[in-house]
């Protein structure tokens, strides 16, 4: 099983949209994919219209003493080969427990390891905060995908995120290949074009050479979670980004 963490310490950069589009692309290729919502805001869980009151079984249960089994928490979706582990509001309280319970940082990694025969890919939709959940995801990931908005402020957020990833990589003593995915790109704005150029200058080789364009169809959760693949420029761009990530994989593993 391959685990991909989709993370950025900044909110609203397209993490959830990216998680969903990459996961459904992998599932469309025939892989068995589990999508795990690690964000207490539960946007991904809502996109799949999972009722949140009362809270569903989900990713918080992986942190219970003894740890629930990932497979038992994964629910079917309308999309073939794609299962979802929902987010629960209690995720927000985890950061406090993390300080007092050693070992919580590896809960997700352990759960994924135990379920490695059940899935080909796990895609982790991370919260926009550097805390226990993000550390769990980065500790468990085989690769990190950082969606980044193409505006000047977002570039600072990206630098923070890559520094965090380098820190986790040093402590876990296993390479964490990182890829930057420019998102929400508007080629009609000067700041968009300039920011994309700057991204390529700063992170050459790690940045997908294209960008996910603004596309209103990507804003509609019911389109993104429907059985039928969403069409349009945004969805096509995500397919092309996925192909790039898949092609980068063997090379990065050899380098590692
Ligand atoms: P994050 O998970 O980083 O907070 P989201 O994926 O939720 O980001 O995206 C933030 C908002 O932008 C959402 O309303 C989403 O529907 C919208 N969005 C994301 N990507 C695109 C895009 N390429 N074009 C148009 N809207 C987008
Ligand atoms: Mg999100």
State the domain count.
1
Rg over CA atoms, rounded to whole Å, is 17 Å
Our count of helices gives 10
Major beta sheet, specifics?
A: 7 strands, mixed
- Give the SSE order as H and E letters: EHEHHEEHHEHEHEHHH
The average pLDDT is: 92
Shape: globular
State the share of residues found in helices, binned by percent. Answer: 40-55%
Beta-strand proportion: 5-15%
Distinct small-molecule ligands in the complex:
adenosine-5'-diphosphate, magnesium ion
Termini separation: 17 Å
Number of strands: 7
- Uncertain spans: 252-256
Q: Pairing-aware structural class of the strands and helices?
A: alpha/beta
Description:
This protein is an alpha/beta fold and 256 residues long. The chain has a single domain, classed as P-loop containing nucleotide triphosphate hydrolases (Rossmann fold, 3-Layer(aba) Sandwich). Helix content is 42%, strand content 13%. It contains ten helices and seven strands. It has helices spanning 15-28, 43-47, 70-73, 94-100, 107-114, 132-140, 152-172, 190-202, 221-224, 233-255, and strands at 2-6, 33-37, 75-76, 82-85, 121-125, 143-149, 178-183. It has a seven-stranded mixed sheet with strand order 3-4-2-5-1-6-7, sandwiched between helices. α7 (152-172) links the parallel β6 and β7. α1 (15-28) packs across α10. The longest helix is centred in the C-terminal third of the chain and has 23 residues, at 233-255. The radius of gyration is 17 Å and the shape is globular. The model is unreliable at 252-256 (pLDDT under 50).
């Amino acid at each position: 099983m391959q685990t991909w963490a989709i993370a950025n310490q900044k909110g609203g950069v397209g993490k959830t949209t990216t998680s969903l589009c990459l996961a459904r692309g992998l599932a469309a290729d025939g892989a068995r994919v589990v999508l795990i919502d690690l964000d207490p805001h539960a946007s991904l869980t809502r996109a799949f219209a999972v009722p949140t009151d009362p809270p569903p079984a989900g990713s918080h249960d992986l942190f219970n003493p003894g740890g629930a089994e990932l497979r038992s928490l994964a629910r079917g979706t309308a999309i073939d080969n794609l299962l979802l582990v929902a987010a629960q509001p209690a995720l927000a309280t985890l950061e406090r427990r993390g300080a007092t319970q050693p070992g919580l940082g590896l809960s997700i990694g352990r759960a994924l390891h135990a379920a490695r025969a059940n899935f080909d890919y796990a895609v982790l939709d991370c919260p926009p905060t550097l805390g226990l959940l993000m550390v769990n995801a980065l500790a468990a990931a085989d690769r990190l995908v950082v969606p980044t908005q193409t505006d000047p402020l977002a570039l600072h957020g990206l630098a923070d995120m890559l520094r965090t990833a380098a820190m986790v990589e040093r402590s876990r003593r296993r390479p964490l290949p990182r890829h930057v995915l420019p998102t929400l790109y508007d080629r009609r704005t000067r700041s968009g074009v300039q920011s994309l150029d700057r991204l390529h200058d700063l992170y050459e080789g790690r940045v997908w050479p294209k960008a996910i364009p603004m596309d209103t169809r990507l804003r509609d959760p019911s389109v993104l979670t429907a059985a039928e693949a969403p069409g349009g420029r945004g969805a096509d761009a995500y397919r092309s980004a996925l192909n790039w990530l898949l092609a980068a994989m063997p090379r990065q593993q050899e380098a590692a």
